[in-house]
Structures are given as structure tokens and as C-alpha cells.
Amino acid sequence: MYCYVVQPNGVVLEVQLENKTKGQDVLEKVCDILGIRTEMDYFGLKYQNGKTSGSELWLNLRNSVERQVQHMHPIRFRLRVKFWVPPHLVLQESTRHQMCNQVKEEVKEGRLLPTTRESRLRLAALLCQVEFNDPTWSPTRYAQWGKLLLGDGENDVCELSAMHKEFENMKRTAAEYWVLNEVSTLDQFGEEIYEVKSMKVGIGPNGVNVYQATGEQIMISYTSILSTSTLRSKFQLWFLSDDHAEETLEIKCDSNATASCLYRALTERHDFYSCDTVRGAVTSQYIRDLKGTIASIFNESTPLGKKYVFDIRRTCREVHDDARRALYSAAGESSRGAVETSETTPSGAEKLLTSVRELFTCRVCMDQEIDSVFFPCAHVVCCGQCSERLTSCPLCRTSITASHKLYLPQLPS
Fold this sequence. Notes:
Helices cover about 40% and strands about 20% of the residues. By secondary structure, it is of the alpha+beta class. The chain folds into 4 domains: about 1-80, Ubiquitin-like (UB roll), CATH 3.10.20; about 90-185, Acyl-CoA Binding Protein (Up-down Bundle); about 190-275, PH-domain like; about 355-405, Herpes Virus-1 (2-Layer Sandwich), CATH 3.30.40.10. Strands 2-1-5-3-4 form a 5-stranded mixed beta sheet. The protein has a 4-stranded antiparallel beta sheet with strand order 6-7-8-9, with helices on one face. Strands 10-11-12 form a 3-stranded antiparallel beta sheet, covered by helices on one side. Strand 8 and strand 9 (about 215-220) form a beta hairpin. The longest helix has 25 residues, at about 315-340. The protein is globular, with a radius of gyration of 25 Å.
């Protein structure tokens, strides 16, 4: 059995599932392909749940995949950042790249927008640098981000072009870092919104935001939360107010599933951002189905019908420390291996030539040399034969209006 995993940039991965595969196995396979296994804990998999009117739920990584997506054919997940952290805590460029792709998606959908024009202009220029890495003047290049963040006026495009030239010598990886740094200061950064009747509840890195229909906003930090509970479709939160008085927030959700999602999201984020380690009360909490409940009467330790409520494994501090140790260890082994095999490995020039040949090879057929450029996105990824068969760019999914031959330098044989 296979499942499809959609990355934030729209590229789809195909992953083979074994019998009784758990969500953790799927995420590990995806992260291995993308090179983000070391910082895998920041990510999760989302799927459409037909029981809650098509809303998206986080796949529980500790439970069986088949039991969570019984009525989904084919099985399709979306790889998304579950726990957002400041960019200086992210150690791998590949991890920042995936986070930046999701930021671009949320900016396009209007969920993550700066409030001041200066911040919007800077963010638009950085996003242009990430995509084009070349400040050459072209109105079509600035049309998308300029219209989304500034406006479609001629002065807006000129301002964006001037700002983009300031980042002329910035590498794409550095631009991705500064994009994340720019949005990390926003109030909506890393906040997941749950709509419940007459209000919206946002759960983010700093705490819980309750947005009333009247415009009133209640902010509850993680340090002031005392306890939470859920009973059917009712969610309750006990916390300390600013004057240290105990208060209760009671939310009547649309369904039992929504209340459970709210309870899980708050508990996991509370532990991830504000605890030194994941509490045992969180990792050990589970429920049983009817068959498992009957079996547990005779054998309390039976795993039959057991479904874990939470799947968080590490806190923010633990993820960062473990990733740093893993990368340091890998760098040490790599340097030792390089010394031992220096006499048998190809020269640096040969490796460089091989890498350049791979870069100039069509990414579709992986046979012919690249010789076509797409418009309007200006991406160069495939040969002339493959470009005739494509209707949208394989990188950015933009519709192709024209494809022209490109003459690149000839590589030595």
C-alpha cells in the first residue's frame, strides 16, 4: 500500500506503507528523503477527516495509520511544520528550506502578513531573493509578491525592485533565514487557529489567544495555565489571571472531535515550549476501543485497542540539543572517514565536475541536458523534449505560457 505526502511547495512524495505501519514510520521515511531527519520533531503530517466536515487533523504518530485514515483512498497527507521555533534554533538548511516554503504558502493565503508597510516591503524583497536570487528588473517577477504584500501600483513595484537590489549578493539560504526571522516577530507566527462557534482559539508558541466575535482578545500564557480537560464536546481551561485569581475558560465546541483536537494541541504545545522534558502524564495517556476495554478486564497490560492521545516525544530544548549533538557527531565521523580514504577517493576537481553535470541534467527524464526556460516563472529545470510535455513548472507549479530554448555552456566530456 502506498500513500502520498504533499510538501509545502506542492511537490508530492510517494511512500510505501507496511501492514500496521505507525505514523512515525511514515514521517521518518519522508524526512529521510528530504534530509531533515535530525530535526524531524518540528514537523507533522496532516490529513482530511471526513467525520469533521473535511477539517484537517494532525496524524497521531504513535498510532496505526490505517486506523486513523480508514475511509481515505488514496491516502494523502500534507507535510507541515507543527512546532515553529525562531530561525536561530534551526540548525539545518534543509529544515529552514521546508519552513520557508510553508511561510510562502501562508503569505499567499493571507494568514501571515506583517502589519507595517516597511515590514511588508522587506518581506516581499526577501521572498523575491529566495525565488529568483537575481535583482534583474522584470515586472513579472515582482508581480506576485508585490501584489500580495504591497499593491499592484507602479510605485509599489519600483520600491520592491529597489529593496531587492539591496540583497543582490545574498545567498538563497541566507535569504530563507531572514524570511523566517522577519515573520517570527509576528503575533500569528506558529499560531494554529480553531474555530468554535462564536469565537476563534489560537494556540501558538507563547500561549493561547481567544478571539471573541465582539473583537475582544484574551491572552493566556503557558506559565499561567493550571489544567485542562475535555468532556464530549466541552473543553475547559483553568488558568491564573493577571491579578493571580483562578479563572475558568469553558468552550462549547461543534463536535467531540474538535474538543479533542483543541485539548491535544494545547497540551502538546504547552509541553513543547514551556517544559524541560515531556511529562509522563502526557506520554502515558491513552484510550481504548470497545474490544480493547473488554480485553483489559482480563489483562490490564494488553495493547489491544490502545490509542495514544498525544504523540509528542521531545520538548523544544531537547530537540535542539539532540540535533546539535547528532550533527556534531556526524561531522566528526565524516572528517575521520575523509582522512582514512583520502588515497582512494576522487580528486576535488572530479567531484566538482560530477556535481556540475548533475545540475545541468534534466530533472524530469534525468538523461538529456537542460536547454529550456519556462515563462513567466523563469525556472530552468528540463530539456526541450520534456518541456513540450509539461503544462506547469515542476518547481513552483506555475502555469507555463511559453518555453524557449536556452544555450548553456558546453561541459567537458
